[in-house]
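Action item from last meeting closed. Structure (387 res):
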């Protein structure tokens, strides 16, 4: 029986994936794993029993990743599970930034009480909300991951010219992009050619503030910018100034900060990107499946603090070892198993920065003495034997 603690309300569609061998509650004792959405965990005391945390969503700033890695706690997220929801909101952002739909709706409300004159007032005043169509315009997509690809392909279907930039584009993602999307090799190409720019990259020291005064100066006059990834990808003060000057026709974002609220030309939605029932179900299902596969088989997929290691079961028992990424430790681990009479049938090991993860399938039972011997090796953080 595995104990799963929930720190937020998790969709029933996800919890149903766990089955009868799981006790799930928000107050469960000695949890083997935690399912979380937005709850802050940085000040939380991590119990010794805790093996894994799964975030039902992509962002993990609410989880202390380094602290978890040091304790051998694997942290998962659910990349792509909310991608369609975000894509649809980005498409909405392009439309409402072009046609001033929001301004038009608010203006129409002011006509209330004018009776039969409303129709004529609408015809007289509608010209102030005129805006361009998307068809034939150029969309620049910065970041061609799960969301960026969907946005790019949808924009192609709308008749837009689409260019994309991603220096880390994977082979799998490249195969999913429409052949009509032109891949450019520099951000400056995006800035110079695009009528619309949408940003879909993680927040890193390299990407922080990528939309700034210097880069805005390289853009077309009247460009429209969309940020549905992270607030700090954009320097708010620079965008406010560019909107006021007319250099940027509109800025739309899902991240509210006090300085950009109620600024003409800036449209702020209250973090609605993943706020769909379908997205919440998808994230919960993926998070539950990641936890289940890790607890039952030791497989790691979509971890943000450990390498991805996954293989089919090939022996009687499975030994899973989280360890430091240092020379010769793998040789020492395999030697410890051999010295205690265990024959290794299959193994896989990968590293990620300072940490590594090794799975070993053995032909016989692994007794406590063998596990203890591995755990005592300098650099080994955690050992699990899965029957």
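Sequence:
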């Amino acid at each position: 029986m595995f104990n799963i603690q929930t720190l937020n309300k998790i969709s029933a569609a996800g919890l149903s994936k766990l089955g009868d061998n799981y006790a799930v509650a928000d107050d469960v004792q000695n949890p083997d794993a935690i399912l979380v959405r937005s709850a802050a965990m940085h000040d939380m005391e991590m119990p010794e029993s805790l093996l894994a945390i799964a975030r039902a969503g992509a962002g993990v700033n609410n989880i202390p990743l380094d602290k978890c890695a040091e304790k051998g706690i694997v942290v998962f997220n659910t990349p792509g599970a909310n991608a369609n929801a975000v894509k649809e909101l980005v498409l909405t952002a392009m439309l409402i930034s072009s046609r001033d739909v929001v301004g038009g709706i608010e203006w129409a409300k002011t006509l209330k009480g004018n009776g039969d004159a409303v129709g004529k007032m609408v015809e007289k005043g509608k010209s102030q909300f005129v805006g361009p169509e998307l068809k034939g315009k150029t969309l620049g997509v910065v970041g061609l991951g799960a969301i960026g690809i969907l946005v790019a392909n949808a924009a192609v279907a709308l008749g837009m010219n689409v260019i994309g930039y991603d220096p880390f584009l994977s082979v799998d993602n490249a195969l999913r992009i429409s052949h009509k999307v032109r891949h450019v090799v520099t951000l400056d190409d995006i800035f110079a050619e695009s009528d619309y720019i949408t940003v879909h990259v993680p927040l890193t020291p390299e990407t922080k503030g990528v939309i700034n005064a210097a880069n805005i100066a390289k853009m077309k006059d009247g460009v429209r910018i969309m940020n549905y990834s992270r607030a700090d990808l954009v320097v708010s003060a620079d965008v406010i100034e560019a909107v006021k000057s007319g250099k940027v026709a509109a800025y739309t974002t899902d991240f509210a900060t006090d300085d950009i609220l109620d600024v003409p030309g800036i449209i702020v939605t209250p973090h609605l990107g993943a706020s769909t029932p379908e997205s919440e179900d998808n994230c919960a299902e993926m998070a539950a499946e990641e936890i289940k596969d890790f607890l039952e088989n030791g497989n790691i997929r979509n971890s943000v603090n450990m390498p991805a290691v996954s293989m089919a079961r090939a022996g009687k028992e499975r030994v899973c070892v989280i360890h430091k990424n240092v020379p010769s430790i793998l040789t020492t681990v395999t030697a410890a198993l051999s010295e205690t009479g265990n024959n290794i049938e299959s193994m896989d090991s990968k590293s990620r920065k300072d940490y590594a993860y090794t799975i070993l399938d053995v032909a016989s039972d692994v007794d406590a003495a063998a596990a203890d011997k591995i755990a005592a090796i300098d650099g080994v953080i955690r050992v699990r034997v899965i029957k």
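Note appended to the action item: The chain has a mean pLDDT of 96.
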